[in-house]
Amino acid sequence: MKKVNVEAKKMSEGGQIPVDGYVVSILSAKVEETDYGERLAIGFDIAEGEYKDFYKQKFESDTSENKKWKGVIRINVPDEKNQYYDTQKKVFGNFLACIEESNEGYHWDWDEKKLKGKSLGIVFRNKEWEKDGSSGWYSEPYNVKSVQDIRDGKFRIPKDKPLANKQETAAPVVAQPEEIDEDYPF
Question: Where are the alpha helices (H) located in the chain, listed in sequence order?
Fold first, then answer.
């Protein structure tokens, strides 16, 4: 065998964050208009632990032309015209409770720009993707919790979300993450 200049270094698992609960710092927040109403897009990065600054490092190491900030969770703003209005109210109400509990003295006043610099807890799940005949799994932000609930382990990891019409299987954390239309948040 001919000698090749190669560094002995383990490969990463596609640069995905493991499913778990994380304390995050909010870097940006903006309202997006969709066909089904408004949603709040919150850009964040991991604030504590082994994965601190995970999304910043991922963004900075991305050499593609159209790189996107991947640390984003989107929460639908309740809209009475939407068929899921009651669910939207519960999810948004949970967000309000968690953001206020996680930031002493903060009270939500419908100005999303004031979320920058606030702390929050986010729980991730595995979601299956398929594109051009290939498929795999990635971890996605799924729901919010208070910072204290994350620190105390008071959350459950949601079930994996397989593609429609497929049986749920154990999901290895693999390659290609979802493309999120979000630039670096600052």
Answer: 54-61, 85-102, 147-151
Strand partners, 124: 141
Assess contact for 141 and 24: CB atoms under 8 A: no
CA pair distance 3, 126, nearest whole angstrom:
40
Which string of b and e fits 116-137 if b means at least 16 CB within 10 Å? eebbbbbbbbbbbbeeeeeebb
Please state the pTM of the whole predicted model.
Answer: 0.80
What burial class does residue 86 get, using C-beta atoms within 10 Å of its C-beta: 0-12 exposed, 13-18 middle, 19+ buried? exposed
Neighbours of 158 (CB within 10 A): 15
Q: Is the backbone of residue 85 left (phi > 0), alpha (psi -120 to 50) or beta?
A: alpha
pLDDT tens column, 81-130 = 989 999 999 999 999 999 999 999 999 999 999 999 999 999 999 999 99
- Give the integer Cα–Cα distance in Å for 71 and 56: 9
Element (H, E) at 110: none
